[in-house]
Design brief:
- A hairpin with a 2-residue loop joins strand 4 and strand 5.
- Helix content is about 40%, strand content about 40%.
- It has a 6-stranded mixed β-sheet.
- The protein is globular and about 45 Å long.
- The chain is of the alpha+beta class.
- Keywords: Signal.
Length: about 150
C-alpha cells in the first residue's frame, strides 16, 4: 500500500509540473537587455545594408521615426527613405548607451556616431537618440518609436 501512495504522489507531482510548464509557456516573453541590444544591432545593420525586409520586420506597423531635423516619418516612409534615399549609412557606432526595461517595453538612449554618404558625398553624423522597442502580439521585439536630437556644441 505504501508503494501505491508514493506512485500517486509522483503522478500528482508530475501533473503539477506539466501544468506549470504549459501555463508558463503561454506567458509573454520577458525582455532582457541582451535581447534589446541584439535587436538594435540587427536594426543598425539593416539600415547600413538597406535591407528592406529586415527593416519591415523590426519596426512596428505604427512606427514614429523622428529625425534630429524635426522631420517625422511613418513606417513606410522611413523604410523607403533608408532603402531608396540619397543618404546612406556606411557605419554606425552607439556610445554612452543605456537600456531601461518596463514589462514589454525597452527604452534605449545613446549617442550615435556614423560615417555616411549624402548624394554620394561623405558625411558624418553625431546625434543623440532615444528609441522605444516593444514586444508585439507575437512576442517579437519591434521598434515603436525613435527620436534623434542635436547634441549641445
Amino acid at each position: 500500500m505504501g508503494k501505491i501512495r508514493i506512485s500517486k504522489q509522483i503522478i500528482l507531482f508530475i501533473g503539477v509540473i506539466a501544468i506549470t510548464s504549459c501555463a508558463s509557456s503561454t506567458d509573454q516573453k520577458q525582455l532582457d537587455k541582451e535581447m534589446v541590444l541584439q535587436t538594435l544591432k540587427k536594426f543598425d545593420d539593416a539600415v547600413i545594408e538597406r535591407d528592406e525586409a529586415t527593416l519591415n520586420a523590426l519596426t512596428a506597423t505604427n512606427l514614429s521615426y523622428g529625425h534630429s531635423s524635426g522631420k517625422i516619418q511613418e513606417k513606410a516612409e522611413f523604410v523607403d527613405d533608408v532603402v531608396n534615399g540619397s543618404f546612406q549609412f556606411v557605419s554606425i557606432t552607439n556610445d554612452n548607451q543605456s537600456v531601461n526595461i518596463s514589462e514589454n517595453v525597452a527604452i534605449v538612449r545613446h549617442i550615435l556616431s556614423a560615417d555616411a554618404t549624402n548624394a554620394g558625398q561623405p558625411a558624418k553624423v553625431h546625434i543623440g537618440i532615444i528609441m522605444v522597442f516593444q514586444l508585439d502580439e507575437n512576442d517579437k521585439m519591434v521598434l515603436l518609436a525613435r527620436q534623434a536630437y542635436r547634441l549641445p556644441s
